[in-house]
Amino acid sequence: MKTLIVTADDFGADNSVNEAVERAHREGVLTCASLMVTGAAAADAVARARSMPSLGVGLHLILVEGVPALPAEHVPDLVDGAGRFRTDMARAGATMFFNPSARAQLRAEIEAQFAAFAATGLPLDHVNAHKHFHLHPTIAGLVMSIGQRYGMKAVRAPVEPIAMLRRVEPVRHDATMRIADLWARQLRTRLRRRGLHVPDQVFGLAWSGAVTAGRLEQLARHLPPGVTEIYSHPAANDRYPGHCPGYRYIDEFAALTEPRVRTAIDESGAKLVRFADLT
Question: Which of 133, 188, 193, 129 is CA-nearest to residue 161?
Fold first, then answer.
């Protein structure tokens, strides 16, 4: 049996992202979106989500390259001089692991973002983190202990089968990606031990910012059994404030509404669902 979840990350980052999410859900194959509760357009995203109860909305935790939910002075070890989260993920991760004060700040910030999501009144469909920072063992542990108090039932662990990708086109798989895969598999095991729903495989990592219609169609035609999540970053503008240089946001948006992608999913026999449908 094949089950497919199609997710858009960065919901709430900008109105152009929100527009793409709404249209991709109403007109295309998008089933879920991950909300940045501190995003510049979070209020607009929430308003749109309330008009689309069939869209599964989850929490996209921001702990890097964004603004905190708490005042910057409450999380000094996590932010830079401008009050934004640090961008040096390796050093920030080490600080979170070794510094007790930073861990306390991290716990408070994660709690604040879960509380901000709860305040929207939207059902919590799933949880993941920007740049997959929840692969960090300290963050993962806090997400599990805090999230389940807020009704968290599903989490992304980005285990991406390289052999499957290579059925579509040649892809690189360097040491960094192999290490990330090991962390993802460990996270998937931890999450499942806590009784949480986790996809069997996730696609979107190797082609981050370039999940085009051709790639999405071919992924759909080669879906393995089990629960698969495909995530992308759709937007109606390639250069919105805070965009990632080189990302093909408009192309990813077009892929989600491309008729041949829908045809490929239908012909694969996969059922399109939200994370909430797994429970």
Answer: 188
